[in-house]
Design brief:
The protein is α/β, with parallel strands linked by helices and 289 residues long. The protein has twelve helices and eleven strands. Strand 8 (167-170), helix 7 (182-194) and strand 9 form a beta-alpha-beta unit. Helix 1 runs parallel beside helix 3 (86-96) and helix 7 (182-194) packs parallel to helix 10 (247-261). It is globular, with a radius of gyration of 19 Å.
Length: 289
């Protein structure tokens, strides 16, 4: 872990990445890709120590309330956050100035800050975006070794549901020949429906691979599933989009089941929902005496 000072608070898409790099060790992580130009080892977390201060200086100047997101590049609730509490500071600042917040994570550490999610949601809007990729705990321990298994993340979703805080699930990636089974898809969907998620992001029953990410993933396959990387090479070559042979069948199940339950299942619809703030006057009538 090392500390740097950020130059700006928000990206052009109203995003904030406090950490760069990750300690979760997920074998499929796209953020390892060479195109992101990491100049330090991925596990040596770069901490943007002044990010909350920059945000606190910026928000009072904004004329329009927006939803500010964090976690698109690196998980904001990785182990160092337990001590540093920079993500909590981010939420406190958003709460103080009446903005909305959206967080993408796969860590149960987010439960620590459920009080702030609750407060933000009553004033504006908060959304927990949780990654669920594989239901089987044994496989999850291999693919996502340093983070809680998906069953625990389901419990987190239920805790947010109990508070009335909206949630969206990222059911991606689905790994060909590993997690691309009907049983896995249906189990993840059942958890999502039980937890009352507003939407599920899933482009295909597949994944993406590119330079940097691909080599790391194949080394993991060689360690845990000998011969499988060769299957990938023969079938997919250097393709960026790598879809399951059962992609059409699995996606039909996904879209049909979501449609039945009124759950958003087009990624763009999910993103519009996350970014949209409710009418302020309606909020005031609901939550102010």
């Amino acid at each position: 872990m090392h500390f740097v000072d950020a130059k700006t608070a928000l990206t052009t898409h109203n995003g904030l990445n406090i950490y760069r790099g990750c300690a979760h060790g997920c074998v499929y992580c796209d953020s390892r890709s060479a195109c992101y130009q990491f100049t330090h080892p991925f596990e040596d977390i770069e901490v943007k120590q002044n990010a909350p201060a920059l945000l606190a200086a910026l928000l009072p100047k904004k004329r329009k309330k927006i939803v500010i997101s964090t976690g698109s590049m690196s998980d904001p609730y990785q182990p160092c956050e337990k001590e540093l509490k920079l993500t909590r500071q981010f939420l406190e600042i958003v709460d103080r100035y009446g903005f909305g917040a959206s967080v993408i994570t796969k860590s149960d550490l987010v439960l620590r800050d459920i009080d702030l999610f609750d407060s933000i949601n009553k004033k504006a809007k908060s959304v927990l975006q949780m990654s669920l990729t594989v239901a089987d705990e044994g496989l999850s321990r291999i693919l996502e070794p340093n983070v809680c298994p998906s069953a625990r993340r389901f419990e987190v979703l239920k805790a947010f549901q109990a508070r009335g805080i909206p949630t969206v699930v990222w059911m991606t990636p689905i790994l060909p020949f590993l997690s691309d089974t009907e049983e896995n898809i249906r189990t993840l969907l059942d958890w999502c429906f039980d937890a009352g998620v507003k939407g599920i992001v899933c482009w295909n029953a597949g994944m993406t691979l590119r330079s940097g990410d691909r080599e790391y993933y194949y080394r993991a396959l060689d360690r845990h599933f000998p011969g499988l990387s060769e299957t990938y090479r023969l079938r997919f070559g250097d393709a960026y989009e790598v879809n399951s042979p059962d992609n059409a069948k699995l996606m039909q199940i996904f879209h049909t089941e979501c449609e039945k339950r009124g759950v958003l299942h087009d990624p763009e619809d999910c993103f519009r929902y996350i970014a949209a703030l409710p009418d302020r006057q309606l909020r005031l009538s609901l939550f102010e005496p």
